[in-house]
Specification:
The complex is a heterodimer of chains A (317) and B (252).
Chain A (H helix, E strand, L loop, with lengths): L7 E10 L2 E7 L2 E2 L4 E5 L6 H8 L7 E6 L2 E2 L4 H7 E4 L13 H11 L7 H11 L15 H13 L5 E5 L7 H17 L3 E6 L2 H7 L2 E6 L2 E7 H9 L3 E7 L2 H10 L3 E6 L3 E6 L2 H14 L3 E7 L4 H9 L5
Parallel strand pairs in A: 4-9, 4-10, 7-8, 8-9
Antiparallel strand pairs in A: 1-2, 1-3, 1-5, 5-6, 10-11, 12-14, 12-15, 13-14
Chain B lengths: L4 H15 L1 H28 L2 H40 L3 H5 L5 H37 L10 H26 L5 H24 L8 H29 L2 H6 L2
Helix pairs in contact in B: 1-5, 2-3, 2-5, 3-5, 3-6, 3-7, 5-6, 6-7, 6-8, 7-8
The chains are: A alpha/beta (317), B mainly alpha (252).
The structure holds adenosine-5'-triphosphate (ATP) and magnesium ion.
Adenosine-5'-triphosphate binds next to strand 2 and helix 1 of chain A.
Chain lengths: 317, 252
């Protein structure tokens, strides 16, 4: 048997709740220092996977390695080297403790040396722009600020592995961007490994090196972001923005033998073209000859969303 | 070298419990009520009665006061331990706590320790306050001193009460694994207190007439003691077995 190398390696990882197979024979490899994104619809098994990896749940079958430790044989060691942002992280703080006290409590439980605790807390709270509010009770902070605080808590002990369940879900765009940049810089600088659950596809596309799509507990697709991008570019979609009679433009496009499909938007067409490098100019000429005014003709930016929807719909429309 | 994680958890729990008005009130009331009642029961009759009549009344009021003082010191444990486990789950702070590198044992012990620390303090301070209060009233009014607690009372307060305390907390831990809300745990705690109330109060209830029979008091104290030991051992074993992360998270 070939031993796979990586900071997180799952081996047939499975969890049942009664009849529900929440996680079903999942095999994932996450190399050290990389950012991994687990995508999937509601109830797909993302949070359950995270809970298995941080040893909150025991697998019904299979196992996983986190760092050099097995989650079943060495759960305490696994917890030592992981930082966790639970699902709905903003609700997981002690409302009656101050922001500072929340972090202090966990710093002690994670064995951060006493003399390093104040500095570490100040650094994190300052980064998340919460330092001025350090003495406010966590219950009085806004949802987004509580989420930032929960992120600080996950990072306190400089864990090798971070399991973040929807880290930017409650954050405003500026804060979300800061967190994304933080994740990237930590992964690069300190080789910390990130395992992120998310619904935010464009975010995942931006920061993750590797992605897996999970549904009904099973991994449907996995690969590096580069691999997935290649897969996406096999489709040749173009956006043609026009003024004037869009229906006419549509019928002209459809009449071309190399056009596979045409979708109509408000002022534009999305056209799937066979062999575009040869045929694009012919299509353009056809449209111009018919008096259609073209304002834009661009390659459609293939997004992860397309792939995601395609995979989940079982291979497209 | 290693800081005790259990102690860190226990101290945080105590701090949080004291921020809840209901718990704080409950603590103050039972901490104050125990010694006040003891002083009234023990010193009061001396101010009214004398001679053999007083002796008869004192013979059952003094042990009864000890039993009640013990009871009132244990009751707060149900509140604190209910908040320590079910409360954390209810406010969803249990999950991050379970993600820390504590062992199940350390966490279980921490959650037990918070109740044990507070209740032991109430028990010791309450007993001291009662002893001093009674002596002050009796000597101040020129009456004959009654030493509180007497020997069976001391047994009740120093030996039986701590074991009952332990048994109550481990019962609460087992209950915590089965209920979703703090108030459900509170409701169940009433039954737990009843279990121990019966043998502890039995000598007074079973008294027919005349002076209390010291051997009956000793007997019932031993019954309480044995009951507490048996329940403590069984529930602690069950609690240790039940107390695992998977179960607590799955129940959420
Ligand atoms: N403690 C539990 N008891 C029973 N079933 C559970 C439990 N936790 C999760 N499940 C079930 O397992 C499946 C996966 O849930 P999970 O929370 O992992 O989904 P998710 O991918 O995180 O979804 P979301 O995007 O909504 O957060 C769901 O069908 C859910 O109902
Ligand atoms: Mg989830």
């Amino acid at each position: 048997m070939v031993r796979k190398v990586g900071e997180i390696v799952t081996d047939q990882l499975s969890k049942r709740f009664g009849k529900i197979k929440a996680v079903n024979r999942v095999d994932i490899v996450v190399p050290q220092g990389s950012v991994f994104g687990l995508l999937g619809p509601n109830g797909a098994g993302k949070s359950t996977t995270t809970r298995l990896l941080c040893t909150l749940l025991k697998p019904s079958f299979g196992t996983a390695q986190v760092g050099e430790f097995d989650i079943i044989e060495n759960p305490v060691k696994v917890r030592e080297i992981t930082g966790v942002l639970p699902e709905e992280g903003s609700h997981t703080l002690y409302p009656s403790m101050s922001a500072y006290q929340n972090l202090e409590y966990f710093a002690k439980l994670y064995d951060v040396p006493d003399e390093e605790i104040p500095g570490r807390i100040e650094e994190l709270l300052t980064f998340m722009e919460l330092w001025e509010r350090k003495n406010d009770r966590a219950g009085e902070l806004s949802t987004g600020n509580r989420q930032r605080l929960a992120l600080c808590r996950a990072l306190l002990h400089k864990p090798k592995v971070l399991l973040l369940d929807e880290p930017t879900s409650a954050l405003d765009p500026v804060a979300a961007k800061r967190v994304r940049e933080l994740i990237l810089s930590l992964a690069k600088k300190y080789k910390q490994t990130f395992f992120i659950n998310s619904h935010n596809l464009s975010e995942v596309q931006r920061i993750c090196d590797r992605i897996a799509i999970i549904d009904k507990g099973q991994i449907l697709l996995t690969g590096t972001t580069a691999e997935l991008r290649e897969q996406l570019h096999a489709k040749q979609e173009y956006m043609i923005r026009v003024t004037g009679d869009i229906e006419k433009a549509k019928s002209i496009a459809e009449s071309q033998h190399f056009v596979e499909s045409v979708k109509v938007g408000v002022d534009s067409l999305i056209v799937t073209i066979d062999n575009p490098f040869e045929n694009n100019s012919q299509l353009m000429q056809g449209l111009l000859a018919a008096g259609v005014n073209i304002i834009e003709f661009a390659e459609e930016e293939a997004s992860l969303e397309d792939l995601y929807l395609e995979v989940l719909n079982g291979g497209g429309d | 070298m290693a800081r005790s994680k259990s102690m860190i958890v226990a101290l945080a729990d105590i701090r949080m419990a004291l921020k809840l008005r209901m718990v704080k009130m409950g603590l103050v009331v039972s901490a104050a009520f125990g010694p006040l009642m003891t002083i009234v029961l023990v010193a009061g009759p001396s101010l009214v009665f004398t001679g053999p009549e007083l002796e008869m009344i004192a013979s059952f009021l003094v042990p009864m006061a000890a039993a009640m003082l013990a009871m009132f010191s244990v009751i707060p444990a149900t509140m604190i331990s209910a908040n320590a486990l079910v409360g954390e789950r209810e406010q969803s702070t249990l999950e991050p706590l379970l993600c820390t590198p504590m062992t199940d044992r350390e966490l279980l012990w921490g959650k037990t320790l918070s109740s044990v620390l507070i209740c032991s303090a109430i028990l010791v301070l309450g007993t001291l306050a009662s002893t001093i209060g009674i002596a002050a009233i009796l000597l101040g009014s020129g009456k004959q001193l009654i030493v509180f607690p007497d020997l069976p009372g001391l047994f009740m307060l120093a030996v039986v009460a701590p074991i009952v305390l332990f048994a109550v907390v481990s019962l609460m831990i087992i209950i915590s694994g089965r209920v979703q809300r703090v108030y459900e745990a509170y409701q169940m705690s009433g039954f737990i207190i009843m279990i121990f109330m019966i043998p502890m109060m039995a000598p007074i209830v079973s008294m027919q007439s005349g002076a209390a029979d010291p051997s009956a008091i000793w007997m019932w104290n031993f019954v309480s003691f044995l009951l507490a030991v048996v329940i403590a051992v069984i529930t602690w074993a069950v609690a240790i077995k039940q107390f695992n992360r998977d179960k607590m998270v799955s129940l959420v």
